[in-house]
Amino acid sequence: MTSTETATLPGTPASAGAAVGPVVRVPEPLGEPPAGPAVPEDRREVEAARIAPAGSAVSARMMDTAGTPGLAKEVSDVLYATAMMAEDPSLLEAAQELVRDHGTPAPRAVYESAARFVAALQAAGGYMAERAGDVADVRDRVVAELLGVPAPGVPVLDGPSVLVAKDLAPADTATLDPATALALVTVEGGPTSHTAILARSLGIPAVVGCPGAAGLDEGTLVRVDGTVGEVVEVPAGTAVGADLAAAGPTSVAGPVTTTDGRRIAIVANIADAKDAARAAGVGAEGVGLLRTELTFLSAATEPTAQDQRAGYAATMAPLAGRPITLRTLDAGADKPVPFLNMAPEVNPALGVRGQRVFDEVSAAPDRASVLDRQLAAAVGGAADAGVELKVMAPMISTADEARRFVARARAAGVDQVGVMIEVPAAVLNAPELLAEVDFVSVGTNDLTQYVFAADRQSGPLAAFNDPWQPAVLRLLDQLCRAAEITGTPVGVCGEAAADPALAVVLVGLGVTSLSAAASALPAVAARVASVDLATAQRAARVAVAARDVASARAAVRDVLG
Ligand code: PEP
Ligand code: MG
After folding, report:
1. Which of 15, 24, 347, 546 is most buried, taking the most CB atoms under 10 A from its CB?
2. Is the pTM for the entire model greater than 0.85?
3. What average pLDDT does the segment 477-492 reach?
């Protein structure tokens, strides 16, 4: 194939870096298999007899993969355990009975009998409840086998690959191994979706909102450029692996200041101990956003106080001695937390989410105390790990909400308490709200989606969710002016802080702490350290005055050269 024949598929850049590899397609989740029509009586034995071989086939395939040389031991242990489940007689026999007694089609019978197991495990709670997800995974694989369609979810990769999916659940992305998942491409999704954020935290190049990727065949060799946001087919024989040609600085040369001495904290967004180790590895000065909800996403019951404390301590330990800003549980909308049993809402992004789940005024009575237990565990975990703890609440809109949160955090023994600025009302209420807190941190991802009324997960609306939007920068400007008066430090922990040129704009607006995935920090630190404050302020002025994203980028490029 010559370069002129090569198809370039444009998308949205979501995680910087580039890699070449063969496409592995991620099958879409299966829906519920149809409940009918009923199998005629004289065919029920034959239909029931399909179930055990399907379970064995799934089990054999998983055993095979579990034995792949070089697979991490934890991964192969999980695969062996799950493979055994696929042949569990009690699961398969219950399904066979449904076929024989009621004429339920085999795929549906497996689905229904597994549902009973899942419900029983969830009711048992604790460790048993955590196995419910594994049963659901086995169920979907056996159902897929019976239907003759590919198994759902991210396949186990037996070599370096480029994953191509319609979209990926955060849980799927979190388990990816950068050694084999060289790059990610999603047909849907925006740059601030949690899948994109996780890809950045793992340092996996990613392109999202790439409609052309829907037509890529399994095995096609492609180059994914997550910095530019494009996928290109490359000739067979092109070397597979990370493309390090454009690699920039690899660590933060701190403490970081502008050339004339304005101190800017360069801190990391993390969710677990692995992220923390990466943050320590690049020389992050601490953590500007510890997202705690990601560890709650798969919990069927509230983790115990001891488990939470131990979990926080383990996450914080790699950064002992550095300050860590922990965000309390941000549940709801795109981050469902099963054990909170939140009632379905028509507009969950505009519903009881974030701090609203726990605030005395809006919370269901049995939920408010979940926050107090989390705060106590955070204080304990930070003491165990030897870090300086700050906490902040997500999705705050008013000064009263901020005051109630600050009171509860102080009662738990937290000294430095802040809130996130993610709702436009919080900016409009800044003079009163800032007076209640020790610091604020701007979540530009949510702030942008709420300013534009454009879901951050939406592919078609991805252009609205661009962190360079002047409308968002104008709000930040207004916030920083109010913060100058109250003397409140303003940080940014949304994805805007991960873009080196935009980071300079933020510094020019008055932001003094930039928090982003570890992989983004070295380039951000180097850019900030290369300018003086007056240049950053000029960049901020032209960006705020621009009519749209493209002119904001161009005007800042002119200023920064
Ligand atoms: C944000 O909204 O910008 C933010 C940092 O929080 P999250 O992405 O976790 O919603
Ligand atoms: Mg947010």
Report:
1. 15
2. no
3. 98
494 three-state secondary structure: coil
Ligand 1 pocket member 445 (CB < 6 A): yes
Domain 41-147 has CATH 3.30.9.10: no
**What spacing in Å lies between the alpha carbon of 11 and ligand 2's midpoint?**
23
Strands (E), 193-292: 206-208, 221-225, 230-233, 241-243, 265-270, 287-291
Amino acid at 539: A
Ligand 1 in reach of 422 Cβ (< 6 A): yes
Distance 294 CA to ligand 2 centre (A): 12
Over residues 447-466, mean pLDDT: 91
Is residue 210 flagged as an active site residue?
no
Quick one: 8-27+153-247 is in which CATH superfamily? Phosphohistidine domain (3.50.30.10)
What number does CATH give the domain 265-560? 3.20.20.60
Rounded to whole angstroms, how far apart are CA atoms 378 and 71? 34
Query: Confidence band (pLDDT; 50, 70, 90) for 2?
Result: very low
Is 493 annotated in the active site? yes
User: Helix or strand or coil: residue 418?
Assistant: strand
| Residue 561 CA, ligand 1 centroid: distance in Å | 30
pLDDT digits (tens, 9 = 90+) for 111-158: 988 887 777 766 665 555 556 667 777 888 889 889 888 777 777 787
Helix, strand, coil percent values for the chain (each to nearest 5): 50, 15, 35
443 lines ligand 1 (CB under 6 A): yes
Q: Where in the chain is the domain with CATH 3.50.30.10?
A: 8-27+153-247
**DSSP H or E stretch at residue 161:** strand 161-165
